[in-house]
Amino acid sequence: MVASGWGFRILVIDNAFAELGLATDATEREVKDAWRRLASQWHPDRNASAEASARMQRINQAFEYILRNGRPLPASSDEPTHGEPAHDAPDADTGTARETPPDEAASASSANHTADEGTAADAGAPRRLLRRKIKLTLEEAAVGCIKVLRGKVVDTCTDCAGVGSRVMAGHCAACGGSGNLQKRSFFGWSAGTATVCESCLGSGAGRATCATCDGNGKLPPRNYRLSVRIPHGVRHGDLLHVDGRRVRADGPNADVEIRVEIEAHDLFQLGDDGTIRCEMPIDGFAWIANRTIKVPTVSGLQTLQLKRDQLAYRLEGQGFPVQRRGPRGDQVITLTPIFPARFSTDQQILLDQLSATGLGADGEAVDERLRAWHRGLRAWEKNR
Fold first, then answer.
1. What is the Rg, in whole angstroms, of the alpha carbon atoms belonging to the chain?
2. Rounded-to-integer distance, Cα 51 and Cα 313, Å
């Protein structure tokens, strides 16, 4: 018997095997592997095409029909046939059958780079994607950091694979196993037209509402927490990818795409070549006295030895990575000596004393550069 409507052809066992792309002598393990592969490809949360929902229904019905009502399946050599098949199915919503993170925080990689993990069946299967934005300071982007993402996520019910019901033994009570419902006229006679039975979705098999999700196919929203290790050298607008198969059990059970936003900085300006520039006012007297000062860098405060004949200083390796995950560039500190607009009486006395130390007993400047200047000035004045 063939049901109309969506074209379900799973009441004949050979058609059920064909729906999963298998031969009729397939082993139980081959049936389960085929279901996992097709569920990863056609689940509506992963496949946005119009036919995804109907195709997923047929895949689920074929899978359950084979294991419940089909001829005995030959056992594979390394997996004997046993148990209830529905509990062996993976989570069709997330594709996250393995949650064994190597560290406390999941590592984020560039979005155009996919982690080489998982089975061959997982390789081409689209997985659920969660999109988030994070804001980083320039310091966090330069040296890397760990960010904690929190939110709510709705998971697909694993007991019914998101269908909302499960195939049971026997025929559908609503349609008697035909998969169709005959329309009746006002007088109760058959109108000659049939519609697909909504109770069994045209399969003719008995179905029961999933008790876990109450027929919704979705579980109640749950809070998730995900620690993400951000690599050093990320730029504004970068997309990072977290493999959902490596997150912890309290994570979102999905791949995560993170868009990076770097906040403007009050002290630093980042150049395209990775150079970080900082303009810093400095006490003019400390500069004259060749003192040591503390200057800010993205790694923290650094000690700088002043030179009174130098106003710009280059700190090697204290800038931003020139290439993503590469070595850091330099930081350039530009000093602006600041002197009082008006000197106090004490400062004026000290300056007079300091100025006097630059003159010798003959009243001439001690420094030869000043002496040469004054000799040239007197000669110029004399020859005018």
1. 38
2. 65
Give every residue of the chain whose pLDDT is below 70, as ranges: 1-14, 68-104, 110-127, 167-170, 179, 182-194, 198-205
**Which helix H or strand E contains 52, and what residues bound it?**
helix 52-69
User: pLDDT tens digit string along 309-351?
Assistant: 999 999 999 999 988 778 899 999 999 999 999 999 999 999 8
CA proximity to 95, closest of 139, 43, 32, 56: 43
Q: Do the beta carbons of residue 254 and residue 130 sit within 8 Å?
A: yes
Are the beta carbons of 94 and 43 closer than 8 angstroms?
Answer: no
- Whether 137 contacts 265, CB under 8 Å: yes
> b/e for 335-347, b at 16 or more Cβ within 10 A?
beeeeeeeeeeee
CA angle 150, 131, 38 (to 5 degrees): 110
Strands 269-270, 276-283: pairing is: antiparallel
pLDDT in tens, 173-223: 777 777 677 665 555 555 556 677 766 666 666 777 788 888 888 889 989
Query: pTM of the entire structure?
Result: 0.56
Alpha-carbon gap, residue 85 to 97, rounded angstroms: 16
- The candidate with the shortest Cα–Cα distance to 3, out of 201, 164, 243, is 201
C-alpha–C-alpha distance, residues 13 and 35, integer Å: 16
Identify the structural domains of the chain with CATH numbers, from first to last: 269-338 (2.60.260.20), 345-382 (no CATH)
Q: List phi, psi (to 5°) of 267.
A: -110, -30
β-pair partners for 300: 297
CA distance 106 to 246: 7
Residues linked to residue 277 through DSSP beta bridges, in sequence order: 269, 332
* Size (the chain), residues: 384
Given a contact cutoff of 8 angstroms between Cβ atoms, the answer to whether 128 and 46 are in contact is yes
User: In this structure, what token pair is assigned to residue 238?
Assistant: 């970068």
Specify the residue for token string 């059958």: 97
